[in-house]
Structure formats: C-alpha cells, structure tokens
Amino acid sequence: MFQWAWKSLFKQPGNLTGSALGIAFAFILVIFFDAVWQGESEQVVAYPENIKPDIWVMQSGVGNMHMAMSFVWDWKADKIASMPGVKQVTPILYLNNVITAGDTKMFAFIVGLLPDAQRAGPWSMSAGRQLENSGEVIIPDVLSGLTGVGIGDQLRITDRDFTVVGLSSGTYSSANTVLFVPFKDLEDILSSTGTYSYLLVDVDEGIDAKALAAQIRNEVEKVNALPHDEFIKNDFSLARQMGVEIIVMMTAICSVLAALIVAFTSYSLVMRKRQEIAIIKALGVTNRLIFYSVMLQTGLVTLYGFIISVVFALFIIPYIPLLVPQLTLIVSLESLLQLGMIAFIVAISGALLPTHMVLRLDPATAFHV
Amino acid sequence: MSSPILSAQHISKYYGSGHTKVRAVDDVSLDIQPGELVLIMGPSGSGKTTLLSMLGGLLKPSQGAIEIEGIDIAQLKEAELPNIRALKIGFIFQTFNLLDALTVEENILFPSQLRIEKAGQARQRADELIQQLKLERRRFSLPQTLSGGEKQRVAIARALINEPKLILADEPTGNLDSQTGQEVMMILHDIARDHGYAVIMVTHDPRVEDIADRIMWLEDGALRDRKSETHKWVHDPVCGMRIDEWKANIKYEYKDERYVFCSERCKQRFEKNPMEYVSIKK
C-alpha cells in the first residue's frame, strides 16, 4: 500500500516538484522574515555588543540602551573611577534622533565621544579616520552607500551640519544606525553640561563584574549598574519584543499560506488519483490505510518543500546582504527547528480535507468510468 | 450438491423515496456453486452493475441477504467489508483498473499485502500466475506499455492472487477486440472449470453464452425470461464456444472443411490433434 503511495507520488515528478516549490516558497518567506528579524535584533545591540565593557552604568531605572535615555552626573563617574577594582571608566553621551543625509531622513543613535575615549568609538573602520575636531562625524559605510553621502560631505543632526570624516562598518541596521560625533558637539546639541549618558566601566583582572556592579548600585546614589551580559540581554529582549508581534503575524500568515498550498496540493493529488483510490478501496484496502497513505504523500511533499527551503536558507540567504547591504540576515538552527515544527503542523492540517474526501469516496465508482 | 459460494436472497436496491423512488435491483435471488460460470446479461441500465456491486460488498442492498461462504455481508459493518473484498472476492473491471505507478508484478501482488501470510508465499503464487497468463516478459512493465489483452490478464492475475472463491467480472471483454476478448473469456472459463472458482460475469457479449453454465437476464432490475435473438452461429470445435462466423478471424482448413476458433489457443490445440475435435459439429 505504501509502495503505491510512494510510487504514485513520484510518477509525475513535475507535479511533485511544482507542489514542493509552492510549499517551499511559503516556508522561505517564513525563514526570510525570521532571518530579517533575527538580523535586525542582533544589529540593534551591535554597539553595546561590540564595545563590550565589563559593567554598564546608567541612570537609575534605566536598564538598556536601545530607545532609552539616561543622565548620570559627571562626579559619579569620578566616584566610580576611584572605587577599588575599577580599571577604567569611559563616559559617553547618547542621543536617539532623526538625521538628514542627502535627501534621506532616518532614525539614528548618535554617540558622543570624548577625545580620549576611542575605546567607545567605532570598532571597525572601512574608510577615513577617527574623530579629531569639532563638527566631524563617522557614519556607517552602508548609510554612505545608500545616500551617496561620503567622506567630506555634510550630514545634518538636529539643526547642526557635520562633515563626514570616516566610514564605519557593522554599525548599520534599518532600525538602528549608529553615528559617532565629538562629545562637545553632542553636549551642545543637548544643551547639557556635566552629565553623561552611560559609563563604560572596565574592571581589573580577577574582579567579579557582577559583584562590582552591585557595589556600584549600593554606593553610588541614583545609578543602575549592570554586568555586560545582563545589559545586552535587556537590550536584546527589548529589541525582540518590538518586532515580535509583526514577525509572529508574518509567520502565521506564511504558515497559513503554506497550509493552503499543502491542502491544495494534497487535494489535487487526491482528485487525480480519485479513480485509483476507488479501485484500491474496491480491492479491499481499508480507509485507515488509505488515510495513512494520503498523509504519507502529503508529508513527503511537505518534507520536499521543507528541504528546498532549508537549502535556500543555508546557501542563498547568507549571500543576499552582499546584494542588499542594508539587510542583516541571520538564520539560526533554532528558527529552522521551529520551521520544522510548523511544517509538520502544516502537513497535518493541509491533509485533513483531502483525507476526509478519500474516506467518503464510494468504492463502487471503480465500476463506473 | 456442495453449498453455494454465494447466495443472494431477495435482494433489492432502491434509490430515493416516495414518488421519486427508483428500483435499481428488485427482489433478485441467486445461488452460485463452486466451478460455475454465470453470466448476468441485460440491456443498459437494467441494474447489472448495481447487482454486481452489491454481490461484491461495494454497495449495501436496501433489502435481502447476501452470503459469501456463509457470511451475510449485508449485515456487516462498513469497516468489515474491505476484509471480505480483499480475501473472498476477486474483481475484474471493464477498464482493467490497474494502478498506473506499479509494475505488472506489483499490481498482481497488491491485494496480497492485505492478507496475513508467510513472506514469499504470495510471490510464489504471483510467479505461477504470471507464467499461467503468459506475462513473463511483461513482469516489470508499467500498465501504460501493455496492450488491452495484457492489461486484462494482469487484472485477472490480481483477482486470483489471494485465491478467493468468487470472481466478479464487469464487462471484462468490453474494451478488447474480438480475438483478445475471446482469449480472456477462455481464461475465465478455465478458471471456473479447472480451478473451481465461481465466476459471475456481467456482459453484453453474446459469444460467451455457450461457455457459461447459466445465463441470467436482468431487465428493469429484476431477473426475467431471456428474449429470443436471431444469430447465425458456428461453434469452436475445441471449446464449443459459439462464434459469429462472419466476424471470426481465426480459421483453419482441414480436409476441405473450414473451422473457426474463438482464439489462437483453441486453434493451436486443434492443429496438434484435429481428429480429437472433428467429430464436434461446426
């Protein structure tokens, strides 16, 4: 019986591949949206992830960086710097705002760097130099490619023009573009003095960052101090929360689409094999065996589509950012396993209607042609 | 007399109700003994296929009892019927109804998968049937590459693989040319005569009448007296089958006498030893 199911499925390889490609298309959409979401989520935390101090110190009540605002008095930085076990404190100013690059307006995170705070600056430069003077800015190379604003060109942050002196790499995402400007310039934009946004604390060798962070929270009033891992975790989960509803919705839509394609494929398969199914019923095959056979065929078509989509995910998706540099795509094993589960559910639900039809098929139709 | 393989008592099949009630089969009774070849004939729409479907457990009668080897299949639940069909009945269809994706051998073996038995037994039976029905060279061919006669021989082998006592054939020669049809007929005749199968055949083909043990005429769903027909017939000297001399293709001259045959098989038998058959009237 299963031999018939197997062979009749592969009797028309064109139809089978067409159906599998349809299913694969829906699965590829699921993988792609998930990869975009994963990539964007990772990119949102690219700055803290790459700067990676041992401890982040910020205003009390603030626990992350993405879309956050924090003010810490400068004397608190001095106090922390004098604490035993603290190797170095690097203050930064930080602003979320819209920038204008050429004709393009976009949301960006602007980091103000002190002259001696290169430790908090861009971790990878693709062109140009570091900041040296007032009125200079380092922008992501992808932003430069998208807007045509390059080294020596002007870029506006709030009401001030800056000259691009360097291009950094790994600092662009559609949700979070990181720009670097001199500390004083950002202070001027914010009209503030004597405050920092975040303090990047490095600890001496052998010092437990978690314990020191707790000590800072206890000894310095109205600040929050978190070890790097905890800080990143907060930022990452916030970034994921911001997109999770959209991605869940997209995944649900694509899964329903895949289920419809599977159902249609399975339905077509059953309709094409209607006469043969009536014959095997007449010959004495039970409804249960036929049900399993149709489920097997549906499962195989879905598996075929799943394999095509996984091959696409592993061998094609990684090359898409080369063509579309503004996209950061990450395909994780977890998301592929999740897709496997979706595929299984899709196969089951897609086969329900056709198997129901099979069970109702009258075996006496084997006599009527 | 041995007990019948199949016994149908007062079976009827109605569709609709009230003024729209249609009697497809009306109070039909019949007993079929082992080794009998019974024809069910009648005009189109007379209820032949409906009757055959009920006898084969494919359709429940509205009334009456159908016993196959003592089991009343009309009383069985739907879920119990497939097992009866698989083990006790062999089906032969007009359009052969082979499974396209399977080879000749796989088609023949298909029903055997529904029977619990030792591995290799079914294959051994399949080998014998393939040999008997001269399908050796077609063992691994797909149905689409077979001639009509070959397809029907495969269907016959498939019907016999589980060794059912009852064979139901619906117009088995309907899609075959005259000569091939006669060969298929002879195979079914031999199955009944030599192997003791009960064969019920629905057909329009009058050439089969002389090899049948009984002919039942179904009209308006009920068994009736046979209407007379006017034909000019001669007989195959080997098997005795009635043949339309004007349409017969297989002929042989022996001692200035012309003989016609239903199939090459009969002609070959005749050629081997004509004296054995010449005493039979043409």
Entry keywords:
heterodimer, A: 369 residues, alpha+beta, 2 domains, 10-stranded mixed beta sheet, two-stranded antiparallel ribbon, 12 strands, 53% helix, elongated, B: 282 residues, alpha/beta, 6-stranded mixed beta sheet, 4-stranded antiparallel beta sheet
The counted number of beta strands of chain A is 12
User: Which percent range describes the beta-strand content of chain B?
Assistant: 25-35%
- Mean pLDDT of chain A equals 87
Ranges of chain B where pLDDT stays below 50 over 5 or more residues in a row are: none
The radius of gyration of chain A is 29 Å
Category from helices, strands and their pairing of chain A? alpha+beta
The strand line-up of the biggest sheet of chain B is: 6-7-8-3-9-10
Cα Rg of chain B = 20 Å
How would you portray this structure in words?
The complex is a heterodimer of chains A (369) and B (282). Chain A folds into two domains: 2-44 and 243-367, no CATH class; 46-241, no CATH class. Chain A is built from twelve helices and twelve strands. Chain A has helices at 2-10, 13-44, 46-51, 74-81, 141-147, 183-190, 209-219, 228-272, 274-282, 287-315, 320-323, 333-360; strands at residues 55-59, 72-73, 86-101, 104-113, 125-128, 136-140, 154-157, 160-168, 177-182, 195-196, 198-203, 223-227. In chain A, a hairpin with a 2-residue loop joins strand 3 and strand 4. In chain A, helix 2 packs across helix 10, helix 8 (228-272) crosses helix 10 and helix 10 (287-315) runs antiparallel to helix 12. Chain A is elongated. By secondary structure, chain B is an alpha/beta fold. Chain B has seven helices and 14 strands. In chain B, strands 6-7-8-3-9-10 form a six-stranded mixed β-sheet. In chain B, strand 11 (233-235) and strand 12 (242-244) form a beta hairpin. The radius of gyration of chain B is 20 Å and the shape is globular. The A-B interface holds A 1, 3-4, 7-8, 10-11, 275-276, 279-287, 362-364, 366-369 and B 49, 52-53, 56, 58-59, 79, 82-87, 89, 91, 93-95, 97, 99-102, 106, 110-111, 113-114, 158, 170.
